[in-house]
Amino acid sequence: MDLERARQWLGTALGEARAGRDEGGIPVGAALYGADGALLGRGHNRRVQDGDPAAHAETEAFRAAGRQRSYAGTTMVTTLSPCWYCSGLVRQFGIPRVVVGEAETFRGGQDWLAEHGVEVLVLDDPACVALMREFVATHPSLWNEDIGHD
Q1: Catalytic residue among 4, 16, 23, 58
Q2: Could you tell me the maximum CA-CA distance found in the chain, to the nearest angstrom?
Q3: Is 115 helix (H, G, I), strand (E, B) or coil?
Q4: Using CA atoms, how far apart are residues 109 and 80, in angstroms rounded to an integer?
Q5: pLDDT digits over 74-94, tens only?
Q6: How far apart are CA 103 and CA 19, in angstroms?
Q7: How far apart, in whole angstroms, are the C-alpha atoms of residue 66 and residue 60?
Q8: How confident is the model at residue 28 (pLDDT cuts 50, 70, 90)?
């Protein structure tokens, strides 16, 4: 994966994460790009806004992309390491590449994805790290709810 393109695509996901934060939700954003580089779908975590525990950023981007005959060559871009639920979505539909903005705050299933042939690129993006650190510090109980901790 071209690093410059990955950072550009991460900008789309980061914009979504900020939109989620501004709506009072969890600041995680994602985007699904096609093999030709076209943006297929974008979204942000809407668990709080919609009261829907399945409305993760990656699933929202996936839904926004609509039905695809094949996910060959696509790239899921997410501001935060994907949880097990979203990692399962990547595997289920054969999305071959995941770009991760940061994995410091949370490390989901990215190693499992890599072990199963998914190309995983972690960018360690400072803006993604700062966004999540601020959120975790100011909303610890909401964060723990989101990652399934008591």
Answers
A1: 58
A2: 42
A3: helix
A4: 11
A5: 999 999 999 999 999 999 999
A6: 20
A7: 10
A8: very high
